[in-house]
Amino acid sequence: MRLILLGAPGAGKGTQAEVISKELAIPAISTGNVLREAIRNKTPIGLEAKRFMDNGQLVPDDVVIGIVEERVGRDDCRNGYILDGVPRTIAQAEALERFGVAIDNVVSIEIEDSVIECRMSGRRVCDRCGASYHITENPPKTEGVCDACGGELVVRADDKPETVRERLAVFHRLTEPLKAFYEARGKLLVIDGNRPIQVVHEEILAALGKSV
Ligand code: AP5
Ligand code: MG
């Protein structure tokens, strides 16, 4: 199963990727998490990516394409993987096709722009493993502590309202055209993301033909 999760910032890609990854026993690859880890480790890629991410802009395609090409080539990807937040541009999608990556399904999780701000203001992410929580919709068992790894939960640097607005504009301009790209290839599944997390999850599994 090679799956792409497509959707606006805050649509729930990361939340759903984590659960599907456990259920299908395939890794979830989030370019956002990889880039945030690079920033924490102050690597050259992290230093370059930071100025784009802090402003809500996309990191250049060649940087992201290099990350994904290396990651999907690792052993744990042999039985499939979930791409969370990549591809993000037509150029990235074309690069995947050039590497010979055969995508089975593309799930577009859709929510209204007006819901996004509330999602982002309540989001907390694990500083260590990147897991995503929400203070009311998906709280951790212990406040401020990641259920999965015990890391500290923090507010993401790019979740400020003005940066969220910019990320949303970038999504509509550069990422939304991927829906037509994958629809033309017969891969697109559209899911209403504006329902409780568990309901969205069940709909995704049903659309993929997996039993709940
Ligand atoms: P990235 O980390 O990918 O961020 P994003 O796409 O903007 O999406 P988010 O992670 O903000 O949202 P999500 O859909 O994962 O939502 P989540 O599940 O957390 O990218 C960050 C930056 O990195 C980009 O701006 C760019 O600069 C760079 N980058 C990354 N990939 C790139 C690429 N391929 N090319 C170029 N640049 C790239 O949910 C959000 C909140 O809502 C959480 O609090 C969650 O608990 C809650 N929630 C989730 N589902 C529900 C629900 N159904 N009901 C209620 N609450 C819910
Ligand atoms: Mg995410």
Report on the structure:
With 212 residues, the protein is of the alpha/beta class. The protein is built from 9 helices and 8 strands. The strands form 2 sheets. Strands 2-3-1-4-8 form a 5-stranded parallel sheet, with helices on both faces. A 3-stranded antiparallel sheet has the order 6-5-7. 36% of the residues are buried. Magnesium ion is lined by residues 13-14, 30, 32, 85. BIS(adenosine)-5'-pentaphosphate binds next to helix 1, helix 2, helix 3, helix 6 and strand 6.
* Major sheet attributes: 5 strands, parallel
In this entry the ligands are: BIS(adenosine)-5'-pentaphosphate, magnesium ion
Which descriptor suits the 3D outline? Answer: globular
Q: How much helix is in the residues?
A: 40-55%
- pLDDT below 50 for ≥5 consecutive residues: which ranges? none
What is the alpha-carbon Rg in Å? 16 Å
Topology as a string of helices (H) and strands (E): EHEHHHEHEHEEEHHEH
Mean pLDDT: 94
- Helix segment tally: 9
Distance between the termini: 16 Å
The share of residues in extended strands comes to 15-25%
DSSP, total strands:
8
Output the strand order for the largest sheet: 2-3-1-4-8
**Category by helix and strand content:** alpha/beta
Short recap of the structure:
By secondary structure, the chain is of the alpha/beta class.
Secondary-structure topology with pairs:
Elements: E1 2-7, H1 13-24, E2 28-30, H2 31-40, H3 44-54, H4 61-72, E3 81-84, H5 90-99, E4 105-110, H6 113-122, E5 123-126, E6 132-134, E7 153-154, H7 161-175, H8 177-183, E8 188-192, H9 197-207
Parallel strand pairs: 1-3, 1-4, 2-3, 4-8
Antiparallel strand pairs: 5-6, 5-7
Magnesium ion is lined by residues 13-14, 30, 32, 85.
